[in-house]
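## retry 2 of 3
previous attempt timed out at serialization; input unchanged, resubmitting
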Amino acid sequence: MDLEENFRKVRERIDAACARVGRDPKEITIVAVSKSQPPEAVRAAVDFGQLIFGENRVQEAKAKIPLCPERARWHMIGHLQSNKARDAVALFSMIQSVDSLSLAQELEKWADKQAKTLPILLEVNIAGESSKFGYKPEAVTLELPQINELRHLEVHGLMTIAPYTTDPDKVRPAFRKLRELKSQCEQVLGAPLQHLSMGMSSDFEVAIEEGATMVRVGTALFGPRTLARKAAAQAREESAE
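## retry succeeded, writing output
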C-alpha cells in the first residue's frame, strides 16, 4: 500500500471535481475513514498532512486514539447509541451521526458535564433505505429548532450516506436533495450552515459537484479493509515479539 500515492490521487480527484463546478479545493475537507486501520496507518497519514479521521465505533476509537498522534482530530461517523454518548463526547471533536433529538439531548448532558462545546452534524437517511440510520428528510426541520437550543451543541450541517451503486451519477439526486434540505434548515435557523458531509471513495466527486464540504474517504486512501485487517494483525504480532 502506497499511502502517499493514494493521498495524491485523491487530492487530484478533488481538484478535478472542483474545477468542473468552479469551486475552490480548499473548501473540501477530507475525513480519512480509519475504521479497521492500525495506529501506524494513522501516524503515516498524519505525516502526509492528514489530520481529520473518521471512526465508526466508539470502542475501536477508544482503543486506537491514545496510540495515535495528538495532532489528529477525530469525527464519529457511524451510528451512535445513547449509552456511548459519554465516551463519544470525550473522544471526538465532531459527531457527524446525530439522528434523533433524544441522542442530541444525551450528548448535551455529557458535553455539559465535560464543559465542552461539541460540533455536530444531523444524519439524514436521504434515500429512505431501511438498512441505514438517519432522520427522515421531513423530520429534520421539525426537530432542528429544539436541537439548536441545546447550549453545548453546535449544529454545523448535515450528513448522509448515499445508496451504493457502481454508477456514481445515480446518487447525484440524493446529494442534491441533501443540499436542498440544508437550505431549508438555514431558513429555519435564519443562519448559514457550514457543512455538507457526503460522498465516499466511490462517489465523492459527484458529491463535491453537488456541494459537499466534507468527504469521507477510506478505501481510496488506505486500500480495502481486508488489507487493513492484515496490517493490524501483523502489527499485533510484531508488538508481541
